[in-house]
Amino acid sequence: MPQPATLAVVMPVYNEEAVVGDVLDAWCRELDRLALPYELHAYNDGSTDGTLQRLRACAAAHPRVVVHDKPNSGHGATILQGYREHGNKEWIFQVDSDDETGPETFACLWRERERYDLLLGRREGRQAPLPRRIMTRISRALVRVCYGPGIADVNSPYRLMRGAAFRTFFSAIPDYVFAPNVILSGLAAQHRFRILAVPVACRCRRTGRTTLRGLRILGIAPRSFWQTVCLRFTLPAR
């Protein structure tokens, strides 16, 4: 009988038909190599291409892959759903499906997990447009001022979280929050969680393009920044 999963991998997916099969294969190979008791939960966020079919084919080939098909709600709401549905696990790992960060660094995070509550991949070599880089820097500054120092890549989509430490926060963060990972990073700093950040190589997207570009980023940024500030004073204590 398979060992019950203690690690839940949460992977949001939107219109990644060309790469998602390779991404899931690579992650399953690495997690199997490490002999981990895991479940990989791929959340199809209303993709309009052949992503869902690719995900289902991967699930047929990898018994620990579970596909969730849902209406489009955006990256933030999708990962929040995954966190809430699997927050009972001992560990939750979130990674994106665009192949910008691979599984090569995960073993380092997993090896160090017992001494930390939050283990992050600090993205290096990331090629992002200027508006996105500006948004990243302002988010980092806001987290530092409102919550406390300690995390450089506050919105990293490469994070291993201790379930018991974050479970209350998963439920408390409202569904409308654009960047829940930023808030979770801030809360970890505020509550003085044990945090480790290691460099993780960030490569260029092989296909497709990000949905957040140019004027859309500039339109969303003020709302995201306001949420980061306001939630500092409205979220309940642990």
Name some characteristics of this structure.
seven-stranded mixed β-sheet, 238 residues, Spore Coat Polysaccharide Biosynthesis Protein SpsA, Chain A, alpha/beta
Largest β-sheet summary: 7 strands, mixed
Q: How much helix, percentage-wise, in residues?
A: 40-55%
Radius of gyration: 17 Å
The CATH homologous superfamily is termed Spore Coat Polysaccharide Biosynthesis Protein SpsA, Chain A
Count of distinct structural domains: 1
Molecular shape: globular
Classify the beta-strand content into a percent band.
Answer: 15-25%
CATH level 1 class label = Alpha Beta
Order of helices and strands: EHEHEHEHEHEHHEH
Would you identify the regions where 5 or more consecutive residues have pLDDT less than 50? none
On the 0-100 scale, what is the average pLDDT?
A: 92
Identify the CATH architecture. Alpha-Beta Complex
Determine the N-to-C terminus distance: 36 Å
Total DSSP helices? 8
Query: How many beta-strand runs?
Result: 7
Strand order of the largest sheet: 3-2-1-4-6-5-7
What is the oligomer described by this structure? single chain
